[in-house]
Amino acid sequence: MIRYLLDDVLNGTGGRLRGNPPVVASLGTLERDARKVTPGDLFIAIKGERFDGHDFVVDAQANGAAAAIVGEAWAAAHPEIDLPLIVVDEPIPALQRWAGWYRDRLNVRVVGITGSVGKTSSKETISGVLRQQFRVHHSPGNLNTEVGLPISILTAPPDSEVLVLEMGGAYAFNELTLLASIAKPDIGVVTNVQAVHIERMGSLEAIAQTKSELVAALPSTGVAILNGDDPLVRPMAALAKGRVRFYGLGPNNHLRVEDVVSNGLRGSAFWLASGRTRHHVRIPFLGSAGVQSALVALAVGEEFGLDISTMIEGLQDPTIEVRLVFQAGPRGSQLLDDTYNASRQSMLSALDVLDMMPARRKIAVLGEMRELGVSSEGEHQVVGGRAGVVADILLTYGELALPLAETAAAAERTPGPALELHTFRLDEREALLQWLKDNLEEGDVVLLKGSRGLEMEHLVSALRTEAQRDSQQ
Predict the structure, then answer these.
(1) CA–CA distance, 456 with 442 (Å, rounded to integer)
(2) Which of 35, 56, 191, 259 lies deepest, with the highest CB count within 10 Å?
(3) 158 secondary structure, DSSP code
């Protein structure tokens, strides 16, 4: 656990102390959820879209917080608070200043990763490769926003040699410019541009512009590592002040994948071509998304001077948490858990994995894809066309997914049983869960995927609990 000296917090945030100094020698975890505060922690009162952390300062104090970072206006309006307060202009800008101050004092190289999908998996594989030779700190979970990225930096141990950081940039122009000014990345990775959050940004071109801010922010000594197969990512090379490396499947990439072979549940294998050299690579990850995550990690590893055998060993690291994983389900079924988020391309990729799995029945549980704006119906229809061919049973979740269900029902299938289709509204999650509990059987493989806001991971958790009960009987 990283602990913070009071003087460092004051110097980093530019704040002032109100009240007596905390009685602890150093402050514990930086926590923004008052419910998770433990004795000695430093609470930061973040103001979000739906809540204001200042409303929970008293709760944080009751849970043992040693001090709290609060806004000046709130502090002036609450003279009765006797908790030591670090008073700043506003907590979020202060948090960002502190993270930048701390980053400047770390002797590290920074890898920044952005893209519509694949950021978290790429962060995991890159970290697995670099850990073979360096002390690596990476973003916990998916902390990649104007609040999450600073916290990711501030949780880095002082002896870190490399920071691997997710960088969002999904909601507004100049967001990634801000994040890059805090993190100061040496290497910038752009995974892809897809219609994720297009409702907010308006077009794919606008999304690409936001992602390109990372490339433009790299120094002349930096390296841009770009998905050369993505027609909206490749042109970002023109913004780079330093070197550019393309990765992908196409022949015009510096690092490319050839002859991919699926090994089922054991992962994939391919030939890695770099210049005139070729190496055979086996990875434990599933589907094309797994291959992409491995490839970007190999591209970054090359920039750190790692040899191919060391990098391949790093990709076998069991602590790597890729998004698409198998879990045990009720009565001998298997769950293909890809519940973190959803876009058209990631849905299609997950369905490709389901398609290649040997199974008694292939069951797809697909939630609606959100923030797609006017393209929502068409995007759902594309996924529905594929789902109708791959799945034996399709369950959709959410009203936005109805075009998906309708297109799946009309899909032309190869000879065999007709598609079994069930649709569930957003207020019918318990009914959806009950259907799965009642109907899953040994040999079934179940894909679960949908937008993050649906919290479909709770379905996976409930089904895993059911599987554990089965094993105890």
Answers:
(1) 22
(2) 191
(3) T
**Both structure tokens of 283:** 């990875």
Q: How confident is the model over 119-171, as pLDDT tens digits?
A: 988 999 999 999 999 999 999 887 899 999 999 999 999 999 999 999 986 67
Helices within 136-274 (DSSP H only): 148-154, 175-183, 198-201, 204-217
Residue 200: is its pLDDT beyond 80?
A: no
**What are the tens digits of pLDDT across the range 397-418?**
999 999 999 999 999 887 778 9
Task: Say which residues have a Cβ less than 8 Å from residue 234's Cβ, sequence separation at least 6.
Answer: 226, 227, 228, 246
pTM for the full predicted model: 0.82
Helix residue ranges per DSSP H, 193-254: 198-201, 204-217
Q: Domain 106-315 is classified in which CATH homologous superfamily?
A: Mur-like, catalytic domain (3.40.1190.10)
Domain positions in the chain: 6-91, 106-315, 325-472
447: tokens are: 């894909």
How would you class 32 by CB atoms within 10 Å of its CB: exposed for 0-12, middle for 13-18, buried for 19 or more?
A: buried
Q: Helices (H), strands (E): how many in the chain?
A: 16, 20
In sequence order, what are the beta bridge partners of 424? 397
The count of residues in the chain is 473
Taking the C-alpha atoms of residue 104 and residue 98, their distance in angstroms, rounded to an integer, is 10
- DSSP-assigned states of every residue in 302-350: HHTT--HHHHHHHHT-TT---S-EEEE-GGG-EEEE--S---HHHHHHH
Please check whether the domain covering 6-91 is classified as CATH 3.40.50.2300: no
CATH number (1.20.1250.20, 3.90.190.20, 3.90.1700.10, 1.20.810.10) of 325-472 reads 3.90.190.20
- Cα–chain-centroid distance for residue 392? 30
CA 456/CA 111 separation, integer angstroms: 30
Region for residue 416 given its phi and psi (left: phi exceeds 0; alpha: psi -120 to 50; beta: otherwise): left
Give the type of residue at 34: A
Tokens of 341: 């988020």
Instruction: Report the candidate in 388, 445, 463, 452 with the shortest Cα–Cα distance to residue 420.
Output: 388
